[in-house]
Amino acid sequence: MNEAAAREVVLIRAVETTDTVRAIWTDADRAWAGRAAAEVVGATAPPGVFLARRAALAVERLGARQPALPRLLRLYAWRPGVGVALVLVAFTVGVISDQIGAAGRINILAPPLLALILWNVGVYVLLFGQMLASAFGRQRVGWGPLRTVVAWLGRAVPGSLALAIQRKSAATGSPTAVASADAVASATAVASASFTAEWGRVALPLLRARISRILHVAAAAFALGALSGLYVRGLVFEYRAGWESTFLDAGTVAGVLSVALAPGAWLTGIAIPGAEHLEAIRAPGRPGENAAPWIHLYAATVALVVLLPRLLLGGAAWVAERRAAQRFPLPLSDPYYARLLRGFSEGPVRVHVVPYSFDVPDSSVAGLRAVMARTFGARTEVALAPPVAYGDEDELAAGVLPSVPPGLLVGLFSLAATPESENHGAFLRALARSVTPGTQLAAIVDEASFRVRFAGQTARLDERRAAWRQWLTTNGIAPVFVDLNKPDLPAVEAALNTYLPART
After folding, report:
1. pLDDT of 255-265, one tens digit each?
2. How many CB atoms lie within 10 A of CB 145?
3. Which CATH code, of 3.30.9, 3.40.50, 2.60.40, 2.40.10, is assigned to 347-496?
4. Taking a C-beta distance cutoff of 8 angstroms, is the pair 91, 221 a contact?
5. What average pLDDT is seen over the chain?
6. Sign of the C-alpha dihedral, residues 364, 368, 370, 371?
7. Dihedrals φ, ψ of 144, to 5°?
8. Which residues contact 388 (CB under 8 A, 6 or more apart)?
9. What stretch of H or E contains 249?
10. If you write DSSP's letter for every residue of 171-227 in order, what string do you get?
11. Which residues in the chain are classed under CATH 3.40.50?
């Protein structure tokens, strides 16, 4: 997908991962976006095409309700005029940069062109150091001043402000209540903050290439402007070349210039004068000489040391920028994208639940289905096996395990029971033996009956949770605790996001 499509995908990701109360984007909206996108692109479309189409449809519907979100997209759209303006400014500054001498005199030791050459050589050394650090796996050198400003602008809403907005959102009402105006505003603000941070992160390689391209071309434009101004004014004014120094003699100056202007001498064939010649044009008290040969030497040196390398570096950065802008590298292994893609082209997620040693009431079954639909999508297929009786865990009966491997196999326990390695452990091991490649094993602990029996006894609830958590963690499984009679859907969704069942 290209940069514009990726920006829409990241925005919808921000909305769907932060709007846990479904204030601005409901479960029905999410399911519709997936179905509509799949119908448009077809079952054989690449993942990026599906995600881009889904995001475009979602932005269109969401923008009708919350116009601020499409405006945010436009705010972060790159404007080519910024780069053009910076290059023109650099050229203009270069044109006027050579006016430093009095009476048309050029100090051959201190013209702007010599400073320009030295500056660019320093930049090349820094870039080479960055390349070596990257090759040896070292952390990349930080941003320069301009890059720092652009990176900061890419994260316009600081993390502390986003956190404050989230806290305010949590305090404005119950997650189960109908979304109020305050909840809608808070959800929009939090989604905007999340988008700003996430886009600044995923677009960083593109941003680096884009800024590098602009800076390299601007540096070349500055050098070209300086040369142009020098030659144009040289048509109507005579520049006189000389030099003066408190600490350097003619021999030292000859050595310095023979190194600094060697590229220009090689290109033009103009010999660099020796110490005797330089002593003859030393100021003050001497009129100097016509500066044309020196201007040609400096111009040729700038062309080889500044113009050519900067244009080559700018071209390489442009290629990298184009590649990143046309084939934007979104992390499709991210749990959010993986969850969306599981329901695309290869069918819905299949979840097989096996209870151990308790009958699951209808209310808990409904809660279980709601949890899975919330986490893995409305099309999730949930199959509930007959409970495995206490003592029957070593050899699971026929019909307990699925005939077709599911994406997620769930062992369902009751918090009312105390975990025992001999029984609960044997059941868990039997489930683990049935797991095939492409299936993940999860453990859900239902708190419903325990909460009814020990209502209001928070300490006892925490103690029993700790016992289950320690036991399941020892067995290599992170437990998911939920009251299936009244599931906290956002919390359970966050806990289950670590499980990424394969599409089946």
Report:
1. 999 998 999 99
2. 7
3. 3.40.50
4. yes
5. 83
6. positive
7. -80, 180
8. 354, 355, 356, 357, 396, 397, 400, 427
9. none
10. HSS-TTSPP-HHHHHHHHHHHHHHHHHHHHHHTHHHHHHHHHHHHHHHHHHHHHHHH
11. 347-496
In this structure, the dihedral spanned by the alpha carbons of residues 300, 306, 311 and 317, taken in order and rounded to 10 degrees, is 170
Separation of alpha carbons 48 and 339, rounded Å: 14
Give the tokens for residue 462: 């925490």
Rounded to whole angstroms, how far apart are CA atoms 65 and 28?
15
Query: Could you tell me the CA-to-CA distances from 442 to 357, 429, 431, 468, 472 in Å, in that order?
Result: 17, 12, 10, 14, 10
Question: For residue 194, which amino acid is it?
Answer: S
Q: Which of 147-161, 171-185, 301-315 has the lowest mean pLDDT?
A: 147-161
Q: Which two tokens stand for residue 291?
A: 């500066």
What does the pLDDT read at residue 166?
40
Distance of alpha carbon 162 from alpha carbon 340, whole angstroms: 25
> Which pLDDT tens digit goes with each residue over 24-50?
998 889 889 988 998 898 878 899 999
Taking only the tens place, the pLDDT of each residue in 77-90 is 888 888 888 899 99
Single out the residue of 201, 195, 322, 304 nearest to residue 260, CA to CA: 304
DSSP letter assigned to residue 382:
E
Half-sphere CA count of 75, side-chain side, radius 13 A: 16
DSSP one-letter code for 356:
B
Q: What confidence category does residue 217 fall into, taking pLDDT thresholds of 50, 70 and 90?
A: very high
According to DSSP, the residues that pair with 414 across neighbouring strands are 446
Residue 491: half-sphere exposure toward Cβ, Cα within 13 Å: 11
The more confident residue out of 288 and 293 is 293
Cβ-based neighbours of 364, under 8 Å, separated by 6 or more: 446, 448, 484, 485
Q: How many Å apart are CA 239 and CA 281, to the nearest integer?
A: 13
Average pLDDT over residues 341-364: 83
